[in-house]
Write a structure and sequence with these properties.
Layout (H helix, E strand, L loop, with lengths): L1 E5 L3 H11 L4 E6 L2 H10 L3 E4 L5 H6 L7 E4 L4 H15 L3 E5 L3 H5 L1 H4 L9 E3 L1 H14 L3 E7 L4 E7 L13 H5 L5 E8 L2 E3 L12 E7 L3 H8 L8 E5 L3 H10 L4 E6 L2 H10 L3 E5 L5 H6 L7 E4 L4 H13 L5 E4 L3 H7 L6 E3 L1 H13 L4 E7 L4 E7 L23 E8 L2 E4 L11 E6 L5 H8 L7
Parallel strand pairs: 1-2, 1-4, 2-3, 4-5, 5-6, 12-13, 12-15, 13-14, 15-16, 16-17
Antiparallel strand pairs: 7-8, 8-11, 9-10, 9-11, 18-19, 19-22, 20-21, 20-22
Helix pairs in contact: 1-15, 7-10, 7-15
Protein name: Trk system potassium uptake protein TrkA
Organism: Alitibacter langaaensis DSM 22999
Keywords: Ion transport, NAD, Potassium, Potassium transport, Repeat, Transport
């Protein structure tokens, strides 16, 4: 596939790194020559310096025969114009744009039409991060939750602790503990090393366990790995940007919510927008303010400013003063592995959420949903099966008959609203939604080829 990526920021660069190893022809466009040179030295891709919305630059980048254009510059306006130029001058088949301004999102149904702004898919990092935070609030104790198959199947990551009934026992004991609930443990991270689980694998305290199950069973499975935490009732948010506002609006009817914003005018605006949230004009690094607002009673402290260092330091302070959990928004990927798992419980990356959504639209075949797990180390994807036994290498065959690449595990299937955990003797059928876990993303190309119907399928 020939793909043009507009913008070599963190999202554009990470997306290029993901796709260049998957047998794609990648061209990256950006104004920053030094950044482009560094990327070209590291990866097998083309680079073009210039404005992403310029017809001349897009022509030089090969827009006339590109299969896909992904506009992820820092400017919504440039992203929109670039897609419009791609449609009008080059008839680019698929155009994706990152749009962050909420004004555009409010009018998206009227704006993003073929005859107005011909963009096939729009992506909002703020909306994606908001959803991710809400998932984590809904499932206390989870490190990551990703929903698939119309939210009926989920991939969840959580840590095993002493007190969990399965800790110290083999995975096979899960069936004895919960005979009426089925799940598939697909990965264990133990002391920074991945273990492919077997029925005889012993779950140890401290393991990060990734499992796939019907969404309604997430909490039951988690209760086997740790003492199930009580629902979060007292939440404190630091920051008053759009993500913080969106999260507060989603939570204020179910939680006792406090929000701290440094800018007085923004704090007044938030107080008007939020009817059940206590809004404070102050600094979350102010120990006296945290003490006065009983930080020791807070179930989860959420740092959501645009400043990574401020988010980290305020979360560390909140934990030291007694907050039960700390969830932090981190822009720089390099910071995430350094902080998560210590005093800070969960780090959330807008870039990783955006990449997952972009890949859902880019993967070949009928791959309709992608989630990057453990900060890009692993991946889960949802494939819809088409064809018949003569045109598909999958349909009509058992799970055990598939030649899967190393690190690939078939987790679950949604068939006519029924969730089926993929045991060895399960036979694939047309229209199945199959959730596949990949511990090594290098296997993506092989999975795409395996699940694609032949050229004779119509």
């Amino acid at each position: 596939m020939k793909i043009i990526i507009l913008g070599a920021g963190q999202v554009g660069t990470t997306l290029a790194e993901n796709l260049v190893s998957e047998d794609n022809d990648i061209t990256l466009v950006d104004n920053n020559e030094t950044r482009l040179d560094n990327l070209q030295d590291k990866h097998d891709l083309r680079v073009v310096q210039g404005s992403a919305s310029s017809p001349t630059v897009l022509r030089e980048a090969g827009a006339q025969d590109a299969d896909l254009m992904v506009a992820v510059t820092n400017s919504d306006e440039i992203n929109m114009v670039a897609c419009q130029v791609g449609a009008a001058l080059f008839n680019t088949p698929t155009k994706i744009a990152r749009i962050r301004n909420s004004d555009f999102w409010r009018e998206k149904d009227r704006l993003f039409q073929p005859e107005v702004l011909p963009i096939d898919h729009i992506i909002s990092p703020e909306a994606l991060v908001t959803d991710e935070i809400i998932h984590l609030i809904d499932y206390p104790g989870a490190l990551q939750i990703a929903h698939f198959a119309d939210q009926q199947i989920s991939v969840a990551v959580c840590k095993a602790y002493y007190g969990g009934p399965l800790v110290g026992y083999a995975i096979s004991a899960l069936r004895e503990h919960m005979p009426h609930i089925d799940c598939r443990i697909v990965s264990i991270l133990r002391q920074d090393k991945f273990i492919r689980p077997q029925a005889s694998t012993i779950i140890e305290a401290g393991d990060e366990v990734t499992f796939i199950c019907a969404t309604i069973h997430i909490k039951a499975i988690m209760s086997e790995l740790q003492r199930l935490e009580r629902p979060y009732r007292r939440v404190m948010i630091m920051g008053g940007g759009n993500i913080a506002l969106n999260v507060a609006q989603r939570l204020e009817n179910q939680c006792s919510l406090k929000l701290i914003e440094r800018n007085s005018e923004r704090a007044e605006y938030l107080a008007e927008k939020l009817s059940k949230t206590m809004v404070f004009n102050g600094d979350a690094s102010d120990q006296s303010l945290l003490f006065e607002e009983h930080i020791e009673e807070v179930d989860v402290f959420i740092s959501l400013t645009s400043d990574d260092e401020a988010n980290i330091m305020s979360a560390l302070l909140a934990k030291r003063m007694g907050a039960a959990k700390a969830l932090v928004l981190i822009q720089r990927m390099a910071y995430i592995s350094l902080i998560q798992g210590g005093a800070i419980d969960i780090a959330i990356s807008p870039q990783q959420a955006t990449i997952s959504e972009l890949l859902s639209h880019i993967r070949k075949g009928d791959i309709v949903n992608v989630a990057q797990l453990r900060h890009g180390i692993a991946e889960a994807l949802e494939v819809v099966l088409h064809g018949d036994p003569t045109t598909s290498d999958v349909i009509g065959r058992k799970v055990s008959e598939l030649k899967l690449p190393n690190g690939a595990i078939i987790g679950a299937i949604l068939r006519q609203n029924e969730v089926i955990i993929a045991k060895k003797d399960v036979v694939f059928e047309e229209h199945d939604h199959v959730v596949v876990y990949l511990s090594d993303k290098k296997a993506v190309t092989e999975i795409e080829k395996l699940f694609q119907p032949s050229a004779f399928f119509i």
